[in-house]
Design a protein that fits this description.
Elements: H1 2-18, H2 20-27, H3 34-41, E1 46-51, E2 54-59, E3 66-71, H4 82-92, E4 95-98, H5 113-117, E5 125-131, H6 133-144, E6 151-155, E7 169-175, H7 183-188, E8 198-202, H8 226-241
Parallel strand pairs: 3-4, 3-5, 5-6, 6-7, 7-8
Antiparallel strand pairs: 1-2, 2-4
Helix pairs in contact: 3-4, 4-8
Length: 242
């Protein structure tokens, strides 16, 4: 994954040559499912706002001093994560800021966590996380800001940066039927994580079920529904954060 981040960085230069074609490809993102988005926006368990281009989710039941800065996956609209992250926020009592990477590519906005932090106050424990390539970008950021963070949350990806000697608490949620990032590949890279990292494998889940943006090309076929996937993610997060 680290090599992929470097390759995408090189792609910035190629984009100048390819011009509009590359930009059109990058902006042709997987869109948020409108029904899932509507349910999330009307969920009384959280308060959702949008500031400076970032989506902020706060649990409404009680104040929380935990903050998660979340990087979306490659070419996936940030709102596509609303439903899953609303459920996570309410169950695990976590404040969340969803980033908005340039050209929908987290590797182009690795330092965006610095700006996301400004959207939350009263936070005592900071975490970064993300889905797919967004998770790798979050992990790279964490490897450079170890003293400023409590930990990392990875959805359907491996770290790609060696944080094995760090004190960072780490949660990796793995989709058992992921066709984009095979569980075996993620497990092979577990040596990059601290020895006490929590790796939760969700049976029957696929890569696209970490968000709500429809089927993804190359992904597996799920044997659990969206509600079950959301519950598995939220429960793993609840156990991790508390």
């Amino acid at each position: 994954m680290k090599k992929l981040l470097i390759a995408i960085g090189v792609g910035t230069g190629l984009a100048t040559l390819l011009g509009g074609g590359f930009i059109a490809w990058a902006l042709d993102a997987y869109r948020a499912d409108p029904l899932a988005q509507a349910r999330a926006l009307n969920d009384s368990r959280v308060v959702i706002s949008e500031r400076d281009g970032f989506i902020v989710i706060r649990p409404s039941a009680a104040r929380s001093a935990i903050g998660l800065l979340f990087y979306p996956g490659l070419r996936i609209e940030p709102r596509a994560y609303l439903s899953k992250l609303v459920a996570l926020s309410s169950k695990a009592r976590v404040n969340i800021v969803i980033g908005r990477p340039r050209l929908n590519i987290a590797a182009f906005s690795i330092g965006q966590a610095d700006d996301m932090r400004k959207e939350l106050t009263g936070i005592e424990r900071w975490y970064v996380g993300g889905h797919s390539l967004g998770g790798a970008a979050a992990c790279y950021y964490a490897s450079k800001h170890r003293d400023d963070l409590q930990g990392i949350v990875l959805f359907g990806t491996y770290c790609g940066s060696d944080i094995s000697k760090s004190r960072l608490a780490t949660l990796a949620i793995v989709a058992d039927r992921d066709g984009i990032m095979a569980p075996e590949t993620i497990e092979q890279h577990a040596v990059e994580l601290p020895a006490d990292a929590q790796i939760v494998r969700v049976a029957g889940m696929v890569h696209s079920q970490f968000g709500n943006y429809g089927p993804q090309s190359g992904d597996g076929r799920p044997s659990i529904d969206d509600r079950q996937a959301s519950e598995a993610i939220s429960e793993a997060a609840r156990a991790f954060f508390h």
